[in-house]
Amino acid sequence: MAKVVMPLLSGQASGQFAGAMVFQKNGVVREYVIPDNPNSELQQAVRNRLGDIQRCLKTLGAELRVDLPAHLGSHWNALMISDILNNDAAYWIAKKAIYDAFQSGEKTAWAAADPGLGYVNDDGFLLYVCAVELYDITLRIWGTADIVLPVHDNAATIGAAWIAAA
To answer: How many domains does the chain contain in total?
Structure first.
């Protein structure tokens, strides 16, 4: 049931309306759909990636939490997630190949710097892929990056920037 404050479409609304539309935060209205849940292995893999990425993004420090919405909009995390998982996770797969080429000590350093809690995917890789995407997206949209480009040997620097002023 939708909750409407003031006349419909001129004030605020939230929730489902007549099984046809859903009112979301920030004035977003979308079509109401009943989700399909085949619960396949592929769908579970996507859900696991999505959940791990979201848990990693929740570890952002207070400074980045203020900067990102200011420069990238209120849906910055959805933008990052869609970039990482777009085109059958091509970005994810490419960054995983780069990460897999790291030396074991470098992977250990990335895992130690990763404040997130990945349930399925490697902890160090989650920080790496999210930090690279953050760097890429800030260059593309913001025009500058406040963090250093993540590479094989700067895990501690990236980890410190990721959780700065938390």
So the answer is: 2
Return phi, psi of residue 165, to 5°.
Answer: 55, 35
Cα→Cα distances 74→41, 69, 77, 78, 138, Å:
32, 5, 8, 9, 14
Residues 123 and 48 in one domain: yes
pTM of the model: 0.74
What is the domain range of residue 78?
A: 41-162
CA pair distance 17, 37, nearest whole angstrom: 23
pLDDT tens digits along 15-35: 676 777 777 766 677 777 787
Could you tell me which of 154, 6, 121, 127 has the C-alpha nearest to residue 60?
A: 127
For 13, 31, 32, 87, 99, the CA distances from 35, given in Å and listed in that order, are 22, 12, 9, 21, 34
